[in-house]
Write a structure and sequence with these properties.
single chain, Rossmann fold, 7-stranded parallel β-sheet, 5-stranded parallel β-sheet, 12 helices, 12 strands, about 40% helix, NAD, D-isomer_2_OHA_DH_cat_dom
């Protein structure tokens, strides 16, 4: 039996699949980095979500570590380069939480343009701000989607259902059957989009892909949505664009610093034209069940291949 440790929680259905496979001796509890390094020598399969950072220190300490499974889409919390050098296989579950993130993206957009958070809080505070909360329709607006993987595609479908014109920039996508417009240049998207939403991983090439120069190319009064990864947007440049009025509003589920308690992020969150959620894009019961089951099936498949090799 392989020794498997789930350092971040998986759904009960996923854990039951792993247990019933008969392939694993399973432990499940969140260990901080120092605790994990002390115990990782006894772990062969490590399962994480976004909370655990699988750094080079952790990987190098895992003398018996064979597999790291990331129950989710991104791999920015795993040192994939070091894992590859050490012969440790890394797997994730791209697409399993796409619907959850796409629904939050549209929810954030509607909440922003119709002032839903402020309206709710105002009523709770005994205010009736009907005249002050005139909003905008999204019908007929151009939404620019940067990144057209599983999540970007689900966002496009929902945006079309709202009557939006969808423009896509993704250098890895050359064609699609969806009724959207593909552009080859990011600048072309930025110049025409009323809403810019990001759905791409955080890598060296995508870090601060939206910064001061990109904001300068956008239409006045543009809306920014980031439910992908913190660090894709230069948040100082975003703050400046929000204060200047270049950006009408921003809705953020992710931040370059999480939790966003430093001075810049607190200033950003203090703006009236910013709404935010605490990195909950994938946090639905349905999404986590799909992610967990897909991860469990993948790990069982890998373990069986190792047994039969």
């Amino acid at each position: 039996m392989f020794r498997l440790h789930a350092n971040d929680p998986l759904s009960s259905d996923a854990m039951e699949l792993l247990q019933n496979s008969g392939l694993f001796k399973i432990t499940a509890e969140h260990l901080d980095k120092d605790q994990l390094i002390k115990k990782i020598d006894d772990i062969e399969f490590l399962v994480v979500r976004s909370a655990t950072k699988v750094t080079a220190d952790v990987l190098n300490a895992g003398k018996n570590l064979k597999v790291v499974g990331r129950a989710g889409t991104g791999l920015d919390n795993i040192d994939v380069k070091t894992a590859r050098e050490l012969g440790i296989k890394v797997y994730n579950t791209p697409g399993a939480n796409a619907i959850s993130v796409a629904e939050l993206t549209l929810g954030l957009l509607l909440s922003l343009v119709r002032h839903i958070p402020r309206g709710t809080q105002g009523l709770k505070d005994g205010k009736w701000e009907k005249k002050a909360l005139k909003g905008h329709e999204i019908f007929g607006k151009k939404i620019g989607i940067i990144g057209f993987g599983a999540i970007g595609q689900e966002v496009a479908k929902r945006a079309k259902a709202f009557g939006m014109e969808v423009i896509i920039y993704d250098p890895f996508v050359k064609e699609t059957e969806l009724p959207v417009k593909l552009v080859n240049d990011l600048g072309e998207l930025l110049e025409v989009a009323d809403v810019v939403t990001l759905h791409l991983p955080l890598t060296e090439s995508t870090k601060h892909i939206i910064g001061e120069n990109e904001f300068a190319k956008m239409k006045d009064g543009v809306i920014i949505i980031n439910a992908a990864r913190g660090g894709i947007v230069d948040e100082q440049a975003l703050y400046d664009a929000l204060v200047s009025g270049k950006v009408l509003g921003a809705a953020l589920d992710v931040f370059e610093v999480e939790p966003p308690m430093d001075e810049l992020r607190r200033k950003l969150l203090g703006l009236d034209n910013v709404i935010a959620t605490p990195h909950i894009g994938a946090s639905t019961y349905e999404g986590q069940k799909r992610v967990g089951i897909e991860m469990a099936k993948k790990l069982i498949e890998v373990a069986r291949e190792m047994v039969s090799a």
